Amino acid sequence: MSVNDATKQNFKNSIQKKYGFDYFTQTKEFVALVKSTKLANHGDENFNNIEKMKTTCLNKYGVDNYRKTEAYKIKYIKTCIKKYGTPHASKSKEFKDSHKRMMFDKFINSYRFVNFVPKFNFDEYYGVTTKFNQKYPFECKRCGITEKHDISDGHDVKCTKCDKRMSSFQTEVFDYIRTILPNEPIITNNRSILSPLELDLYLPNKNVAIETNGVYWHSEVSGGKNKNYHLNKTKLCASKGIRLIHILDSEWHHKREIVKSILNTILTKNNKVIYARKCKVKPIQPKDKTLFLMDNHMQGNDHATVKLGLYFNNELVSLMTFVKSRFDTKIEWEMSRFCSKQNTTIVGGSSKLFSHFIKEYKPNTIVSYSDRRYFSGETYLKLNFTFVNNTPPNYHYIIDNYDTLQSRINWQKSKLSKKLISFDTVLSEWENMKVNGFDRIWDCGHSKWIFISPKTE
Q1: Are 155 and 135 in contact (CB under 8 A)?
Q2: In 3-state terms, what secondary structure has residue 321?
């Protein structure tokens, strides 16, 4: 990204943070100010200056645009002949050369060619003004083959050898990222970083890669992906300083807006911003808690005993829930869920909710887990949790023709005799499930975090 592009992006981020829009001219305050100014100056809040200009020109020159007058045309021609030696600036060699250089630099330095080296120079470039769809030779940095590409059609350039055709799922994720990061380099189907493994989408400037995992192709039976496949890929990326995110097509189909919000937060941090100091902590009604989690948390609802909500102007914008520790009797509490409203950042929100829980319930110990497919655990560090370890990969069973995942808890062996058509007590849970035509998919495990109250240390 150039300095100029970075400056524009920083300005855009500042406006987004302050007003919640990409441009301050989109805010209600600005629109209201413009209307009030027009009303005060012209007696009409919808006054259009263009109409005033046309009226002035008609009164003064007899035409609605002064550029249409003979006097202006003569003066323009004289100026161009004197300066460029031609009646029109765009016809001059100086203008053509300048425009050609500008367009050449624009295309060659575009993010679209991040994987390619041009095999032609400026003198061989015709310019888009004369041959708009001219194709030029580029060498792929990854495989070395040279192919001709259209440099002006606006599409990301693909190598026929390295860049395979993307699935519709991968294309949809790619297109969404392009909407929030229109000028960011996105490398598709890269095999050079983790060779021979492939990264579906890679954003080198962000050090982030995204796997678009079709459940069928990434399952254990149909896809042949074993227990450690996704975890190993995550570890390999981490060893190269790359954060790898795994998205399942079932999540994209059923929880698309939540996934988009997570990607937006990770890649741009370009959310609506609310400050926790302006919010109030209140208990949440079970129904409100359920609806909020279903709309904003990847795991959906839980069975929390403590439900705390953060309210801004009486609107629920964030929540945190707790249950008695499920897996470790030495730990008192488990933080079950924490999330904020989609595409919203609550500055200090997690700290305010967590501090309220500490004050009201005075816990000695709290445990929590973060999904390694999406999250890095930064929130826990802010809350003074300590990283304990990473749990082994876990699996989910696949139902509804590879469209839906269910927790393995729902399919424990003790429950299978009532659920399966064919059940054999001698076989294991997984063997019984396979006999009945089920498949499963493995995740990357979770990171385990512990909070210990200073009074107990």
Answers
A1: no
A2: strand
423 within domain boundaries: no
Q: How many domains does the chain have?
A: 4
Q: Do both 291 and 352 map to the same domain? A: yes
Phi and psi torsions of 93, nearest 5°: -65, -40
Q: What are phi and psi of 273, to 5 degrees?
A: -110, 130
Domain that holds residue 124: 95-150
Q: Alpha-carbon torsion 326, 329, 330, 332, what sign?
A: positive
Same domain, 77 and 101: no
Outline where 368-449 has alpha helix (H).
378-382, 413-416, 429-435
SS3 457: coil
Beta strands in 127-250, from DSSP E residues, in sequence order: 135-140, 146-150, 187-190, 199-203, 208-213, 243-248
Residue 357: in which H helix or E strand, if any? Answer: helix 349-361
Contact predicate 161/143, CB 8 Å = yes
Q: What is the pLDDT of residue 68?
A: 78
The verdict on residue 418 lying in a domain is no
pLDDT reported for residue 47: 65
Mean pLDDT by 10 residues, the chain (457 residues): 56 65 65 77 69 77 77 83 81 80 78 80 71 77 82 72 77 92 88 89 95 95 95 96 96 95 91 94 94 95 95 96 89 96 95 96 95 93 95 94 91 94 94 94 96 78
End-to-end Cα separation, the chain, in angstroms = 48
Helix 256-267 with 286-296: angle, nearest 10 deg: 70
The region that residue 49 occupies, defined by phi over 0 for left and psi between -120 and 50 for alpha, beta otherwise, is alpha
pTM for the full model? 0.69
- Residue 258 and residue 337 in contact, taking contact as beta carbons nearer than 8 Å: no
Q: Give Cα 58 distance to the centre of its chain.
A: 51
Strands (E), 204-327: 208-213, 243-248, 272-275, 280-283, 306-312, 315-324
